[in-house]
Each structure stands twice: as structure tokens, then as C-alpha cells.
Amino acid sequence: MRKKIEWIVMSKLNSDTELEFFQNQFPSLSSANSNLNNCTICSENDLHKMRAIYPFCRCCPNCPTRYLILKCLNTPMIIVKGVNLHPPSPNSTNDQLTIRKKGITAKFKEIIEDLIYRNISKPFKVYQEILLNHFNDKSRPNLVQIQNYLKYRRKRHGDVNSVVGLHDFVEPKLFNKINLKIEIFYLLLFQ
Fold this sequence. Notes:
- By secondary structure, this protein is an alpha+beta fold.
- The protein has helices at residues 16-23, 92-100, 106-117, 123-133, 143-157, 163-170, 180-189, and strands spanning 8-13, 29-38, 49-57, 66-72, 78-83.
- The longest helix is centred in the C-terminal third of the chain and has 15 residues, at 143-157.
- It is globular and about 60 Å long.
């Protein structure tokens, strides 16, 4: 029988932005796996799922520190737990900033989504808005990152900018076999 791990609750958070800020205080993390379980962290009565993520510390090759991040899929609740914890090293924040610069942070993804909601969807216009409002933020994305984010967001959500792309997106959703007898019946009925 496996030994039960005694997780220590480190923090209760309410958004991915708070989680990212919390993780920036520690050495870089790497997650080997995650899974879906029945939610146990929120007070809703309906059955829904939560994602359990099991990252580990990468401060040194044999670091025993492990984390458990529980994210509810219906509510923004997040719980961070840990085992074999060690204090953050003073230079870990500098290492973390260089690692985090590879992608757009959750905070700026929310800002970009808000700009898209306000019909500002061109990459350069989004970049200008971010520059005007968040000039001093060091995690601000550059123009290429915003272009890539918008490009893959369009692919993911079906937003296309060309007629050929629109045709490719709509074609699988068309009804190819329409029963003509039903159409004739409705035409005769409504005449």
C-alpha cells in the first residue's frame, strides 16, 4: 500500500494571475503530469471536475520539493499545496523572470481578451494599448508574442481572415444530405 503524502496547504488563490504571481516567488517548476478528479475544493453541490497538477522544483537535480495545484474547472478557486518545502533562494526571482519571458503571462492574456472584446483585434493596436497602459511592467509581451497569440487564438476559435480559410472552416459543418421530400412538403404546406 502506498504511503499517504501529508500535503501542506500553502495558499488559496482566486485566479490564474494570482497563481502565476505566487509561482514567481519560488524556483522554476516543471510539471510531469496532471489529471481530472471530482472537485473537492469549492462549495458547489453539483458534480464537476477539478484539475490536479503535480509540479516539482527544478532548483537542483535531486530536489525533493513537490507541489500539488488543484484548479476547479467551474469556479476560479485554486489551492496550492506542497511537501518537502524549502525557502526560495534570493536569485530565483531573476531566473524565473527569464523563464517567464518566453510566453505571455495570464495577466496580459486577460488584457488582450478584454481588448478583443472591445473590438481592438489588430496586433499592432493591441501592442499600442498595452504600451500605453502597462509601460513599466517587465512581463509586458512584445509585438511578435502578441501576433502569435492572436494567430493561434483565431485558429482555435475559428476566426479566419481569408475567404479560403472561411470556406475550409465552414465546409465540414455543412449538411450534405438534405432530405428533399421534407423540403417539398414544407413548401406545399406554406403555399
